[in-house]
């Protein structure tokens, strides 16, 4: 009996520990990163380029240009950078499939981008900091032919931008 009374406090402590862990919260966080060891393209403030943007529409003039201040990052500021579109961007009406598509224009550093031809960015045309970041440049997305749209609705589309480092060139 005396032995049982001695074990009672240990039993109570152990059951208290088990009860406290039964009420514990546990979570797992999946962490991912897309890593390119040669290039990066971010907003000028260091944030990612938005995955989704909302273009404003004015009934008198059409879609307003959307401008993002951006910076290029590279591990080799002596190599040309090549930028192009993966496809010709356009907006399609998601609420009325019979509405005409709205072609978009995309430009970087004031030069229109194309899906058929690379824009060659000579690194000597940019100012680079010690970390391989360029000065801020504008990426502009706009309605290809400015004007009023004929059909109301929700429009959606994709701009696929491809940037590569030209391995064949080195600028002194």
Structure description:
By secondary structure, this protein is mostly beta strands. The protein has one domain: Immunoglobulin-like (Sandwich). It contains one helix and twelve strands. The strands form three sheets. Strands 1, 4, 6, 7, 8, 10 and 11 form a seven-stranded antiparallel beta sheet that branches. A three-stranded antiparallel beta sheet has the order 9-5-12, with no helix packed on it. Strand 2 (57-58) and strand 3 (62-63) form a beta hairpin. The longest helix is centred in the first third of the chain and has 21 residues, at 2-22. It is globular and about 50 Å long. The mean pLDDT is 89. Keywords: Signal. One of its GO terms (cellular component) is pilus.
Structural class by helix and strand composition: mainly beta
Unreliable segments of 5+ consecutive residues = none
**Could you say what the CATH topology is called?**
Immunoglobulin-like
Name the average pLDDT: 89
CATH A-level architecture: Sandwich
The CATH superfamily turns out to be: CFA/I fimbrial subunit E, pilin domain
Question: For the record, what CATH class applies?
Answer: Mainly Beta
Strand content: 25-35%
Reported for the largest beta sheet, the result is: 7 strands, antiparallel
Helix content: 10-25%
Intertermini distance: 91 Å
Keywords: Signal
Organism: Pseudomonas edaphica
Protein name: Cro/Cl family transcriptional regulator
Signal peptide: 1-24
């Amino acid at each position: 009996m005396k032995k049982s009374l001695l074990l009672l406090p240990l039993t109570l402590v152990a059951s208290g520990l088990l009860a406290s862990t039964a009420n514990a919260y546990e979570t797992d966080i999946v962490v991912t990163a897309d890593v390119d060891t040669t290039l990066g393209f971010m907003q000028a403030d260091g944030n990612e380029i938005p995955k989704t943007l909302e273009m404003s529409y004015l009934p008198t003039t059409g879609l307003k240009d959307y401008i993002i201040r951006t910076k290029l990052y590279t591990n080799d500021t002596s190599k040309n950078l090549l930028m192009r579109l993966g496809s010709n961007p356009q907006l399609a009406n998601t609420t009325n499939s019979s509405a005409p598509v709205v072609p978009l224009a995309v430009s970087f550093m004031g030069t229109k981008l194309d899906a058929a031809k690379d824009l060659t960015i000579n690194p000597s045309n940019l100012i680079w900091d010690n970390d391989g970041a360029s000065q801020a440049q504008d990426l502009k997305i706009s309605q290809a032919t400015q004007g009023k749209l004929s059909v109301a609705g929700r429009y959606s589309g994709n701009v696929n931008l491809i940037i590569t480092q030209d391995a064949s060139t080195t600028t002194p």
